[in-house]
Amino acid sequence: MMDEGLAPGALEKIGKIDHIDFVTVRLPFLHPFSISAATWTCKEALLLRLESDGLVAWGECVADPDPFYAYETTTTTAHIIKDFLLPLLEPGLSIGELMGKFHPVRGHGMAKATVENALLDLAAKRRGKALHELLGFPSRPIPSGVSLGIQDSSEILVEKAAEAIAAGYHRIKMKVKKGKDIEYVRAVRKAFPDLALMVDANGDYSLSDADHLAQLDEFGLTMIEQPLSYSDIYQHSILQKRLKTALCLDESILNLDDAMTAIALGSCRVINIKQGRVGGLLESLRIARYSASKGIPVWSGGMDETGIGRATNIHLQTDPNFSIPGDTAETARYFHEDLIEPPVTLGPGGWISVPASGPGVGVVVQPDRLDRLTIGRQRIK
Ligand code: MG
Question: What does the mean pLDDT of the chain come to?
Fold first, then answer.
C-alpha cells in the first residue's frame, strides 16, 4: 500500500492539466547495443507530455518497441496509459493516491512509471523545486557506470573497457551470453586486474549451467546480473548458494513484493532497481529502503533512455540507499544529439552532477530536435 510519508512528492496534488500528449521519438544510436536476447540500433521511446498553465512536464516510458527485454512495449504502454491509467486522474488526488488507484491494473509498471514520472516533474515545476527535492533528498554527485554490449571479439571488448576506464567510469558492466562469457571476462580481467567489473546475462542461462557459471567466481566480479530466466526468483536462490559471486536481480524484480521474496529466499545479494520498470520513483524508494534495511545494496539501472529518462534516474540516485554505481553513463556514448540540454557528462573523477537547469528533472527539451526526432504524436482527450 501507499506509504505517504516516504517522499514529499507523493503528497502533491495532481491539479488541473490542460493538455496530455503522447510523443513518440526515435533517436539513432551511435553504435548498435546488443544483449543476449536482442540488438537495438536506435532508441524508440514513448514520451508523455503534460501541459498545465504554461508549464510542460515529461515522463519517458522505458519500454522498447519490442518485447525482448520486457513484456511491455511502446504500443502496450500507450494502450494501458490511455485506456486504463489516465481515466483515473482527478485533480483533487495526490500523486500517491493516484498510484494507489493504479493498483487494480496488474503489472504494467512501465506504463505506471511514465504517468508518475510526468506528474512528479509537473509538481516539482509548479513548486519551482528540483525533482530530487520532491523525492526528499539533497543533490549529490552520482557515481557513473557504463554497460558494454556484447562485442564481436574479446579484443574489441577490452578496447571498449579501456576507453571507459580512461573516461573515468566507476564501474563497468559487460553483457554476456552463452559462448561469449568466460573467455571475454578473462580477457577484461587480465587487462584490468583492479577494475570494478560485473556481468549481465539478461536471463540467458538455466540452472543446469550452474557449473559453467561457477567458473566466473575466479574473476572477482562485483556481481552477476540476472543469469537465469527473466521471470525467475526461486532458481536464482539455488544458484546463489552454489556461487561465491553475488547475484543481482533485474528483470524479475517488478515491485516491492518481488524484492521481498528475492531477499527472503536469498536469491540475490544486490538489486538493480529500474524505476521505469518497477512502477516509478516512489516504488523505487520503497524497494531501496526495504533492501537497505535487509543489508542488500541497490543501484539504478538504465534502459538507454533519452535525456529525460536519464535525468530522472539521476535524481532518484540522490537517495543514499542507492549505494553503488549504477548504469548512468554520459549521453555522448549513445546519441549524436539528444532531446535535451544539457547532456549528461562525466565530471572530474567520473562523477555526474544532478541536472539543475530549472525545476523538475532539470533538463530543457529542445523544440527543434524534438520535432526532428518525433515519429508520432497523439493528443489524449
Ligand atoms: Mg540488466
Answer: 96
Query: What pLDDT score does 2 carry?
Result: 44
CB atoms within 10 A of CB 103: 11
Instruction: Quote the ligand 1 centre to 142 CA distance (angstroms).
Output: 19
Portions of the chain given CATH number 3.20.20.120: 135-365
Q: How many whole angstroms from 302 Cα to the centroid of ligand 1?
A: 8
Options 175, 178, 180, 190, the catalytic residue: 175
For 185-221, what is each residue's pLDDT tens digit?
999 999 999 999 999 999 999 999 999 999 999 999 9
Active site residue 274: yes
Annotated catalytic residue within 43, 112, 173, 274:
274
Tell which residue, 346, 377, 358, 357, has the closest CA to residue 141. Answer: 346
pLDDT of 1 above 50: no
* Fold entry, domain 8-132+366-380: Enolase-like; domain 1 (3.30.390)
3-state DSSP call for residue 299? strand
Q: What sign results for the dihedral spanned by CA atoms 89, 93, 94, 99?
A: negative
Could you give the CA distance from residue 166 to residue 155 in angstroms, rounded to a whole number?
A: 17
Cα(303) to ligand 1 centroid in Å equals 9
Spell out the CATH class of 135-365. Answer: alpha beta
User: Does the pTM exceed 0.90?
Assistant: yes
